[in-house]
Amino acid sequence: MAGGVPLLAAAASKASGLVTYSLPVQTVILMTMLMFVPAIVLMMTGFTRIIIVLSLLRQALGLSTMPPNIVLIGLALFLTFFVMQPTWSQINRHALEPLEAGTVTVTQAIGIGATPLRTFMLKNTTKDATAEFLRMDGIKKALPTAAAIPMRVLIPAFAVSQLESGFEIGFLVYLPFLVIDLLVAAVLMAMGMMMVSPQTISIPLKLMLFVLSGGWLLVTGTLVRSFS
């Protein structure tokens, strides 16, 4: 290159009205994106809602370490993959496969791949959360379409919405087990068995009712359908 300018310094060039990048710069962009994969899985998918509900379920059963954290996280990850599979299929078909074929650049693939993910997040983000973050971002005028919402607004609004949804579903899961705890405590007090811990009786009862009613299928099925 003339003047001894390094390749990376002149990586960006304009062709056909679009900014394209050289292969080294595209590689750097791709590697940088891979560093954000954990954050994407946590904050831009249904993982947050799922892990909150599963954690509250464990507490409702009165079990502090069973199932272990690694089991809950693994189940949450696979449920997340199941829920996100249609979205990721679109990303793979429209962004990753053309990128491998060389028909689009890395930056173009990022823009194309963000569209299905944006659609998923918009469907699972409350209007109140979106409006609040738009207000905090200083966007006061009404946006023409939902697709015009900036990602810097959509991502935190989606994350907060997932937290709210997770606690709402978790409350509904927690409530019947709380009733069992109260009933057991009331019966023990009526019988004068003050020295017996209510959890000694309630935990086996809750486990029996949960297993007999197919609780895991009910909870996981409710979680998956909540994203539909």
UniProtKB/TrEMBL annotation:
Q: Name one Pfam family in it.
A: FliP
Chief location of this protein within or outside the cell? membrane
The UniProt transmembrane annotation reads 33-57, 69-89, 171-195, 207-227
- What name does this protein carry? Flagellar biosynthetic protein FliP
Q: Which family does it belong to?
A: Belongs to the FliP/MopC/SpaP family.
**Which keywords describe this protein according to UniProt?**
Bacterial flagellum, Bacterial flagellum biogenesis, Bacterial flagellum protein export, Cell membrane, Cell projection, Cilium, Flagellum, Membrane, Protein transport, Transmembrane, Transmembrane helix, Transport
| Biological process according to GO | bacterial-type flagellum organization; protein secretion
Subcellular compartments: Cell membrane; Bacterial flagellum basal body
Q: What does this protein do?
A: Plays a role in the flagellum-specific transport system.
Lineage summary: Bacteria, Pseudomonadati, Pseudomonadota, Acidithiobacillia, Acidithiobacillales
Q: How does it sit in the membrane?
A: Multi-pass membrane protein
Q: Which GO terms describe its cellular component?
A: bacterial-type flagellum basal body; plasma membrane
InterPro entries, alphabetized: FliP, T3SS_IM_P
